[in-house]
Write a structure and sequence with these properties.
The chain is α+β, with helices and mostly antiparallel strands. The protein has a domain at 12-78 and 113-125. 63% of the residues lie in helices and 19% in strands. It is built from 3 helices and 3 strands. Helix 1 (12-40) runs antiparallel to helix 2. The longest helix is centred in the N-terminal third of the chain and has 29 residues, at 12-40. It is elongated, with a radius of gyration of 17 Å.
């Protein structure tokens, strides 16, 4: 991650970091809900599913922590604003400026799906390396 010492404007990389920070709690909630459903199921593979889900949840928590730390280091703060129709708004405060940042529900679904796919692929790679 590069620094943006000379410019006060938010970079595309930082904007992506903000987007990810906004999305990760939604993804964590979805995974937690799925874990609850798995715990209550009588599926013979529920222990394997729980282990996989917890691994993914751990990745989400770690990534959220790293993003918060990096954004804090860059003097960027993200605050939840409002939700109107199909758009979720957050305020971004950065280096003396502020900006309203909106994400549509469809964009959020797509990004969450891509992120979950990536975490699942990482889990698959970790399992393959152990076998």
């Amino acid at each position: 991650m590069s620094t943006n010492a000379g410019s006060k404007m938010i970079t595309p990389e930082e904007r992506e970091m903000v987007r990810d920070l906004i999305l990760l709690p939604y993804l964590d909630t979805m995974v937690a809900k799925s874990l609850k459903e798995i715990e209550l199921s009588g599926n013979v593979l529920n222990r394997a599913y729980l282990t996989a889900g917890r691994y993914i949840q751990k990745c989400i928590i770690q990534e959220s922590y790293q993003l918060r730390q990096e954004l804090k280091r860059r003097n960027i703060k993200v605050v939840e604003d409002t939700q109107e129709d199909f758009v979720t708004y957050n305020m971004i405060f950065y280096r003396g400026y502020q900006e309203r940042f909106g994400l549509t529900r469809d964009a959020m679904r797509t990004e969450i799906s891509l992120r979950l796919t990536r975490y699942t692929a990482e889990l698959g790679e970790a399992l393959r390396s152990q076998l």
